[in-house]
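2024-03-11 09:14:02 DEBUG pipeline.ingest accepted 1 chain
2024-03-11 09:14:02 DEBUG pipeline.ingest length=65
2024-03-11 09:14:03 DEBUG pipeline.predict start
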Amino acid sequence: MKLSTFDMVRAWAALTGLVLAAVYFLVTILGHEPSQMVTMLVAGIGGFELFLVGQDYLLRGREHG
């Protein structure tokens, strides 16, 4: 399966977001104060992914409708 560059960016963004979320929860479980930078990165990457999912649904709806 050959992925486009855009699909690879999405895959790396999703993987990075999952790793950062795991780091956030690990730090929280260990009783430390998580960095605000990690929180903002997780939120930013999550927003990016949600935007792309919405855009995919919109574009697919236009193709079929």
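2024-03-11 09:14:41 DEBUG pipeline.report The helical segments are 5-29, 36-64.
2024-03-11 09:14:41 DEBUG pipeline.predict end
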